[in-house]
Amino acid sequence: MPPSLDALEVSLLNTSGKVKLDARFRTLFTLKSLASVSDENCVRVISIIGKGFEDDSALLKHELAYVLGQIRDVRALKCLEDVLADEKEHTMVRHEAAEAMGAISSPASLPLLQRYLEADPEVSIRETCHLAINKINFDSSEQGKAERARQEQLEKAHGDAISAASNAAAPIDPAPATVHVPASARAEGNVYSLENVAHFRTSLLDNSLPLFERYRAMFALRNTVQQGSKEAQELAMQALADSLVDPSALFRHEVCFVFGELCHPASVPAMSKVLDDDAEHEMVRHEAAEALGGVLEEATEGGEIAQAAVVKTLTRWAEDTSAPRVVRESCIVALDEIAYNNDPTQFQPMDAVELEM
Ligand SMILES: [Fe+2]
Ligand SMILES: [Fe+2]
Fold first, then answer.
1. Of 88, 146, 214, 232, which has the most beta carbons under 10 Å away?
2. Residue 343 lies in a domain
3. Which residues are Fe cation 1-binding (predicted)?
């Protein structure tokens, strides 16, 4: 039997003071999956998550905002607007709130996003508002609707029941992946192939393009790693790694987030380098730590990647009291997740775990 929402609330909000951060993250994702069970659940889950913003962990709160976006229900907007408008809140949390508004994609969010696009002192907030505004406008445009319909058709044509299910669970990206490459021989089909990697790479690295367009190329490269041939995968991974020198911290953090989604052993050197760089922005190092935590579980097939070295890197920063709190906590959560996933007594997937309190 799944745990009750009451019990999940107690766990997420850590009312006992004894729930570890990684267990609270698992509770959060259990709540996310329960939100889709019924409308009543959805309302309750949004309210429980909303109470979590009283916490003092920016890492937890940014994840709360992320999940509110992924639930994709307009009833979460009020809470997200309050978080964005709270200028004393940690930038990473406010960023995630603005991004979540983009994920929900209601035109009603546009005036507030526009205000912070124009006036926020933090560049990563302004950049996130740019992305969210473009996504909302794109989603409601004729082009956006046509692209979505074509994507769905392609997925139906190629997909089986399993990929349909995983598509339904797929995260909402801050910018939809490019689906149309005009000069491509496959322009009307699946564009995530070797011949288009160079096109995506050029857009990704082109500083003069709007950030939204570069993000679209970034997610197209992610899709290429997931769907392309081995050669296409390698080149797409290389393009993503090469883009980590970009001047925008927000852009770099998203590249690390994409590496976290891909769980690809080839990303370990790049992600270790980012985490080890104490001059790097904390938001970027946080995503690199999470990406490193994810690679280990996946790196099984001949994957003699230096597991011990990754654990050592994560442990080093988890224990370094001079490192920013979000970096330390990300490393602690990554290490706890590695231990949890390597524990043979844990058979359940992340979003169906027993409640830990
Ligand atoms: Fe983010
Ligand atoms: Fe994050």
1. 214
2. yes
3. 62-63, 95-96
Closest CA to 6 of 51, 36, 39, 72: 51
CA–centroid distance, residue 256 to ligand 2 (Å): 9
Half-sphere exposure in the Cβ direction for 27 (13 Å, CA)? 26
| 129 and 198 belong to one structural domain | no
Taking a C-beta distance cutoff of 8 angstroms, is the pair 35, 41 a contact? Answer: yes
206 with 284, same domain: the answer is no
User: Rounded to the nearest whole angstrom, what is the distance from the C-alpha of residue 257 to the centroid of ligand 1?
Assistant: 7
226 and 327 in a single domain? The answer is: no
Read off the tokens for 144: 């956006």
Is there a single domain that holds both residue 204 and residue 126?
A: no
Q: What is the pLDDT along the chain (357 residues), one digit of tens a residue?
A: 678 999 999 999 999 999 999 999 999 999 999 999 999 999 999 999 999 999 999 999 999 999 999 999 999 999 999 999 999 999 999 999 999 999 999 999 999 999 999 999 999 999 999 999 999 999 999 999 998 888 787 777 765 544 555 666 789 999 999 988 887 766 667 899 999 999 999 999 999 999 999 999 999 999 999 999 999 999 999 999 999 999 999 999 999 999 999 988 899 999 999 999 999 999 999 999 999 998 865 555 545 556 788 999 999 999 999 999 999 999 999 999 888 877 777 755 444 444 555
Boundary of a domain, candidates 184, 211, 245: 245
Q: How many domains does the chain have?
A: 3
> If you measure from the C-alpha of residue 336 to the centroid of ligand 2, how many angstroms do you get, rounded to a whole number?
16
* Residue 203 lies inside a defined structural domain of this protein: yes
Tell me: is residue 90 an annotated ligand-binding position: no
Task: Determine whether the annotation assigns residue 264 to a binding site.
Answer: no
Same domain, 179 and 196: yes
Residue 166 lies in a domain: no
Ligand showing the shortest atom-to-Cα distance for residue 69: 1
Residue 253 within any structural domain of the chain: yes
Q: Domain range spanning residue 177?
A: 171-245
Distance 173 CA to ligand 2 centre (A): 13
Q: Does 180 count as an annotated binding residue?
A: no
C-alpha distance from residue 272 to each of 40, 74, 230, 264 (Å): 43, 38, 23, 13
| Whether residue 357 sits in one domain with residue 284 | yes
